[in-house]
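User: I'm writing a tutorial on reading structure tokens. Could you give me a worked example: one chain, its sequence, then its tokens, then a sentence or two explaining what the tokens reveal?
Assistant: Sure. Here is the example chain.
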Amino acid sequence: MAEKEIKEWNEEQPERLQTFLKSRRVKEAATAATAEKVAANSKQKFGNSLEKKFKTTMIGALAKFEERFGHIWGHDKKDDELTEEEQNAREVWLLVRTEILNNGNTQLRHAIDELSRYRITYEGFKMNLPMKPKSLEVK
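And here are its predicted structure tokens:
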């Protein structure tokens, strides 16, 4: 290299290095921001799934109970068709049902509050398909 070329090369290096380092910092910041978004979305997705499962469990259990024991409080009858005994049983059932739902919703809120103290990453669904080279195919 000629002396002039060496001098030009050395003078350009700090500027090139600064440009490289700046672009590297921008890329790292973008990667970190993306990771934060993925974590927030993962936590939200898990929270929604957890909430759905809690509610399905509560409502499903109540529906089964009503299916098996609803005859006691005239589950399929209109209010004006109920006997006095069925009316009393229905009042008790509605109180118990409300307590069950309130307790389940309280526990759901506690679970979601606890979830906020964790880092969660959704891994998604992965499927590995085996691939055969054409030379091994049976004809």
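What the tokens reveal: The chain has a mean pLDDT of 85. The chain has one domain: 3-116.
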